[in-house]
Structures are given as C-alpha cells and as structure tokens.
Specification:
The protein has 2 domains: 206 residues, Endonuclease III, domain 1, CATH 1.10.340.30; 131 residues, Nucleoside Triphosphate Pyrophosphohydrolase (Alpha-Beta Complex), CATH 3.90.79. Helix 9 packs across helix 11. The strands form 2 sheets. Strands 1, 4, 5, 6 and 7 form a 5-stranded mixed beta sheet that branches. The longest helix is centred in the N-terminal third of the chain and has 16 residues. The chain is an alpha+beta fold and 357 residues long. The structure holds iron/sulfur cluster (SF4). Iron/sulfur cluster (SF4) binds next to helix 9 and helix 12.
C-alpha cells in the first residue's frame, strides 16, 4: 500500500477550504494551529479571524498588553495557549528579529510552539518534510497499521512521529499533514468512522479486524477531581471588587471576583463562619442579597462546583481595599474573565441585582 499516494489522492477531492489554508504567512498558521489544538474548527474560525484582525502580525501581538490578548481569547479556554502565544511573539521580536525562523528545530525554541505547531508551521509555510502529529495522526495510524501502543503513553509520541516521518510525502509535506487532519475530521472520526468512504478500507487493520472501536488504545485516565468555588459578587455603590488570578493554577491572568474555595460545598450559614469569609467581609454591613443555584462547570481535569453570592456592602473591609481592584460594574465587560463568570454575568439574577433593572 502506498499510504501517502492514497491519502493525497483522497485529499485532492475532499479537502476542506479553511481560511488559514489560503495563506503561507507563518504567523497566521501559528495562530490557527494554536487555536485549533483544543477547539473545534467552527468555533476556532471565528476566533482566528478576530485574533488576526486585532493582532495582524508578530510585532502587534508582542507589543499588546497581556490583558488585551487574554480578552481576545476569552471563551476559548486553555488560556495557557494565549499566554504562550504572547510570550512567543515577544521572544520572536527579541531573539529572531521579528520573523519566525524557517526550520522545525529552530521553531521548537519558541515558547508556545510545541512539536505539533512547529511541524505545522515548518511544513505549511516552509515546506519542510516533518510530520505534524496530533490526535488525528495517532488515531489513523493506530487503526491502519494496527499499532497497540497506548496513545497517551510516554513512548507513543516518538513511535508515531517516526512512523509518520516514514510515510510523509517529501515533496508535498504540507498537503500530507493537512490531508491527515481532514481525513481524521471527516472520515476516520473517533466514533463511528466512515470506513466505506475511506481510501484505506482495503488495507486498514482495524477495519478488517473489526477493531475500530478499540483502536487507538488509551491508558485509563484519573477521573476529574472536584473543587468547590463560591464567588462573591459585591455591590458597593455601583462598583465591585475583582483581582487577577496568579500562581500555578487554572485561569492564570484572568480576572475574578473574591473567591472562597472550600473542601466541600457549604451552605451560607457554614460559609459565613469560615476564616475566608470573615477576612473578606469582616463584621461589615455585608448583606447577602442572592445565592445562585449550584453550577457545575467541567474543565478537562477538574469538575468545578460553583456558586455566586451577591452581596450588598456599605464599607469595604481592609482585605478588599488592599487585595482587590474596585471597578465600576459597567467596566467589567472590558476584562477577560473565565467562561464560568462570563456566563453567570449574562444570567438574569446577576444583571438584575447589579443594574437594578
Ligand atoms: S478504514 Fe475506517 S478505521 Fe481504517 S483508517 Fe479508514 S476510516 Fe479509519
């Protein structure tokens, strides 16, 4: 079987017309690949076009404040991607004279360009024959060649990279990499692949052995752990309190309301007895106006059980005055916040209590 020839023949007829395929600008390719790593094409297209509009080239991205980058990313999730993209743009300005390097090995030196994105940029923009190995490649190669190495094991990356490196068309690496992505998206899908429409159906190990439901193999992951967040939306003379998340945790650099995290869900009677509540609220005139229903918010490895408490306050405590920014409620929309907060802010109770409408 000539894997590459079959793949490229299929691609010549069935390829998708995606906006970032009409460019050989390595920066645009870089942005699109970073967005698409954890985002579906439909949602990613809109973000890609907006991001490129706001930050049309590397100098524009490097010079922008991180807050503006995070705001443009808001809603996409996996915010480390945005921070790395921003850091990478700065690094390109300082170390590479504002231009992305043209080889895979040098691209790998840039923050935010992992093996997949570096290979995508090197092949799509500079025609280097290096395979861009993502979930599509794992899935298709595991099925076609009957590879039983668990795809989330430590040896999988090297093994699949080497196999894809042997298969890649050295004259048409960009098309080869794009073709695998499209075959994985349109035909060899994770569930219920369309084997009868696949160019490999006469050769595919998984199809011929009725193993498409088993391959690719994956080691069982730990179940997501639960965390319990209570956000305090404080109304103080038409202003509220926020701060930027820091530290090595989810949502780094995004803004949030005062947060009380507890080991389990507490009712408000228990909550007001916690040290965190007393520090934030003191014995001030805080009055609880509304308590939201519990909200379950799923992240990749964490299940968040969240709740929003709307509090009316006349005198902010020392903790609030010193640890938080006090901003007008109307200005909240200008800041990048986690999707959990954004969704709740758009909900009816939050709007009603904050705007009085
Ligand atoms: S024959 Fe089926 S399982 Fe095999 S590569 Fe094609 S779509 Fe995937």
């Amino acid at each position: 079987m000539d894997f590459s020839a079959l793949l490229l023949e299929w691609f010549s007829v069935h390829h998708r017309d995606l906006p970032w395929r009409n460019t050989s600008d390595p920066y645009h390719i870089w942005v699109s690949e970073v967005i698409l790593q954890q985002t579906r094409v439909n949602q990613g297209t809109e973000y890609y076009q907006r991001f490129i509009h706001i930050f049309p080239d590397i100098p524009a991205l490097a010079e922008a404040p991180l807050d503006a980058v995070m705001k443009a990313w808001q809603g996409l999730g996996y915010y480390t991607r945005a921070r790395n993209l921003h850091a990478g743009a700065k690094q390109v300005m300082s170390d590479f004279g504002g231009k992305l390097p043209t080889s895979y090995s040098e691209l790998l030196r840039i923050a935010g360009l992992g093996p997949y994105s570096a290979a995508a940029v090197a092949s799509f923009a500079f025609n280097e024959a290096v395979p861009a190995v993502d979930g599509n490649v794992y899935r298709i190669l595991a099925r076609v060649f009957g590879v039983f190495t668990p795809v989330n094991s430590s040896q999988a990356r090297r093994e699949f990279f080497n196999l894809a490196g042997e298969l890649i068309d050295r004259n048409r690496p960009a098309e080869f990499n794009q073709a695998i992505i499209d075959l994985g998206a349109l035909v060899c899908t994770p569930r219920r692949p369309s084997c009868s429409a696949c160019p490999f159906s006469d050769y595919c190990y998984a199809y011929l052995n009725n193993l498409t439901g088993l391959l690719p193999l994956k080691n069982r992951k730990n179940p997501p752990r639960s965390r319990y967040f209570t956000y305090l939306m404080i109304n103080f003379n038409g202003t509220t309190f926020i701060r930027k998340r820091e530290g090595n945790d989810i949502w780094h650099s995004l803004y949030e309301f005062p947060l009380i995290e507890t080991p389990e869900q507490l009712d408000t009677t228990q909550l007001v007895e916690t040290e965190a509540w007393k520090e934030l609220m003191g014995d001030s005139s805080a009055e609880i106006i509304h308590v939201s229903d519990p909200i379950k918010h799923q992240l990749s490895h964490i299940t968040l059980h969240a709740r929003f408490i709307i509090v009316q306050m006349r005198n902010p405590t020392y903790a609030l005055r010193t640890g938080y920014r006090n901003i007008s409620i109307g200005n909240l929309q200008e800041l990048s916040v986690p999707r959990l907060i954004d969704s709740y802010m758009a909900s009816e109770p939050a709007e009603r209590y904050f705007t009085g409408k």
